[in-house]
Structure formats: C-alpha cells, structure tokens
Amino acid sequence: MPIDDRTLFTERQLAAPPERVWQSFADAAQLARWWGPDGFTNSFEHVDFRPGRDRRFWVVGPDGMRCWNVSRFVAL
Questions:
Q1: Where residue 2 falls among pLDDT bands split at 50, 70, 90?
Q2: C-alpha closest to that of 46 among 65, 24, 71
Q3: Alpha-carbon distance 63 to 8, whole Å?
Q4: Beta carbons of 54 and 71 less than 8 angstroms apart
Q5: Which of 1, 7, 12, 69 has its CA 20 to 30 A from that of 52?
Q6: pTM of the entire structure?
Q7: Quick check: 31 and 43 in contact, CB under 8 A?
Q8: For residues 60 and 63, what is the distance between their CA atoms, to the nearest angstrom?
Q9: Could you count the other beta carbons within 10 Å of the beta carbon of residue 47?
C-alpha cells in the first residue's frame, strides 16, 4: 500500500486477550466509552471492519464542538 500524507498507521501492544481487544473496537457501545481524548464523547453511526468498509462517528468536545470522522479499513 502506498504511503502518502493522508495515511496513518498505528500500532500498540495491550495486556489483554486479543478477543477482548477486538471486541472493544468492534462493538460501537464499548468503543464510545473509551475512544478519544479525556473529556470528549463519541457517537458512532456505523462500524464495519471489513476491507473497503468504514467507521463513521462524531467526536464531541467539552465545549460542544462536533467533529465528524470517517475511518476506511483496508487489507494489508
């Protein structure tokens, strides 16, 4: 996959079973509880991790500012 100025790759190791980590990302209700900076809330519209699909959600700041986000998933 070509890397450009609009592509972000992240990696992190967690002390939890892979199934639990996956569920914390795949279940929108769980994801909304921990995703993003402290003081922000999330409202997930759609989460589909299949290649070519996406995750769409609002992040709402402590000041009420709403930021729309879309993450597209690809197979590497």
A1: low
A2: 71
A3: 27
A4: yes
A5: 12
A6: 0.63
A7: no
A8: 8
A9: 19
Measured distance CA(33)–CA(48) in Å, rounded: 18
- CA–CA gap between residue 54 and residue 25 (Å, rounded): 12
Rounded Cα gap, residues 74 and 1, in angstroms: 9
pLDDT at 33 exceeding the cut of 60: yes
Q: How many residues does the chain have?
A: 76
Q: Are 55 and 47 in contact (CB under 8 A)?
A: yes
Q: Which of 66, 60, 71, 68 has the alpha carbon at shortest distance from 26? A: 71
What is the SS3 assignment for 20? helix
